[in-house]
Amino acid sequence: MIAVLSLLFVAALGGTLSWYLGRTATESPLLTANTQLSEVSPGISRAPGSVADIAQQVGPAVVSIEVRVGDSGATGSGVVVDAENGYIITNNHVVSGADDVEGAEIRAVFSDGSGSDARIVGRDPASDIAVIKVEKPGLVAASSPRPARSSSATRWWPSARRWAWPAR
Fold first, then answer.
1. DSSP reduced 3-state for 167
2. Is the separation of the CB atoms in 63 and 108 below 8 Å?
3. Which residues in 1-34 are b (16+ Cβ under 10 Å) and which e?
4. Nearest to 78 by CA among 135, 126, 118
5. Which of 17, 29, 97, 127 sits between 20 and 30 A of 145, alpha carbons compared?
6. What's the pLDDT at 29?
């Protein structure tokens, strides 16, 4: 009982002291009604081909992948590579837990905040690449005006295309 009373006394003393110091402080608030915020210069214009320019161009093609399997889940990212048919490349480790699992859900969330259910089209654990498909009109695909510079990036693309997209 004494411990509870001591705790209440210390709490009341601390609250009263904080109230008193707050009322008698001579500091002015950070922002007042007449505060004038400084203006900022316009954004920097980046040269075509810069990292910022490329990020701005591919941004609409980047998606968030959400996977739910029972009480578990996974998240990752992907890139729309075929807007017309709804194909998205992501990492195998993101979607592999949902492959052939009844009740598993895969969802793609797009840069505009909208989402769409997705299904696994193909996956390759060795390269950690998977292709999922959504049924959503108006997608924007990432494109590259020239071949990728990294040999590792170009090495998996032909084989991924073979197993993900049937011959037309």
1. coil
2. yes
3. eeeeeeeeeeeeeeeeeeeeeeeeeeeeeeeeee
4. 118
5. 127
6. 57
